[in-house]
Write the C-alpha cells for this entry.
Amino acid sequence: MSKKQVKIGSQTKSRPIIDDSMPWTCNFYTKHAAELFVKSKKVDRKKIGQRTGDVVVITGGARGLGLVAVKKFLECDLHVVMGVRNVEAGEKVVSEIRQQGITTGQASYIGLDLKSLNSVRVFAQTVLEKFPKIHVLINNAGIMWTPYELTEDGYEVQFQVNYLSHFLLTNLLLPRIVETARGNSMAGRIVNISSAGHYAGTFKNFDDIETRATVYNKHAAYFDSKLAQLAHSNFLDKKLQNEGVNVNAYSLHPGAIPTDISAHVLTIPGWAKKTHAECRRWCRSNPMRCCGFRI
C-alpha cells in the first residue's frame, strides 16, 4: 500500500492532500481570543449539595478534564459511570482519588472506543442494562488536531470521536435520561464538552465533512467537529424544551486547560525541542504565539 493510500477494513482508498495551514488565526484571535483565557468562577461544591445515588455517565474520565470531573462527582456522592478505552486506567485513577480521602460516591467502568460506532452501541446497551436511571450525560472525551485517519466506520477520526460517536451515544441514552427526569424536580442534563474553536468552524465543504477525502486540514476538521457539537446541543435543547421535557442540553467551552489533548498541537523547531510538559509551560507563558487550545 503506497503512502498516498489509506486502508479502511478491507478497502483501500486514496489519501487526501494534507493541508496544515492556519488561515484563520489572525481573525480568530482578534475576535475571540479573550474567550479562551477568561478565568471562570470557582464553584463551591458544598453549595451544590449531595446527590446520593444519582447516576452520571461520562466518556473518558481517566485523565484530563474528565478526571477532575470524576473526582468532583464522587465528592457529590454520585454514581459515576466511566466510558473508557482502558478499564484498568479508570480503576487506577479512582483508586488514587480514594487514597486522597474521598470515600463518597461509586464508580463503574465500561469499555468504550469512540473510534468504533459498534463499541458505542455496546457501551450504551451495557449502561441501559445496568442502570435503570441516568441523570446526567457528559460527552467529555475528545481528540484534537490529529494526523489524518479514517475509523473502521469510514469517517474522519476527529469528526467521529468528537461529534458523531457522542451524537449516537446521546440518542441511544436519551429515552432513559428523559424517563429519569420525568417527575424529578431537578432537570436531566446532557453536556457536550466543546471549544471556542467552533468559531473557526465553517462546514465549508459539507459534502466532504465526514471523510475529508479531498483535502485534510487537521485544524479545520477539529473546528468543524466542535461546531457540529454546538449545533447538536442547541438543536437538541430547543427540541426538548418545545416538547416540555425536563432535560437540558448544553455545550461547554472549558477554557485553556493543560491536558493531554494538546499532544498534537505544537510543532517545535529542532533547535527548541522540548518535552510535552515543557511545551505546555511554554504555551502558557506565550499564549499569543501558540495556536493551541486547552494548553
Observations:
- The first helix runs from residue 25 to 37.
- The helical segments are 25-37, 45-48, 64-75, 87-99, 117-130, 157-181, 218-242, 276-285.
- Confidence is low (pLDDT under 50) at residues 267-276, 287-295.
- The first strand starts at residue 5 and ends at 8.
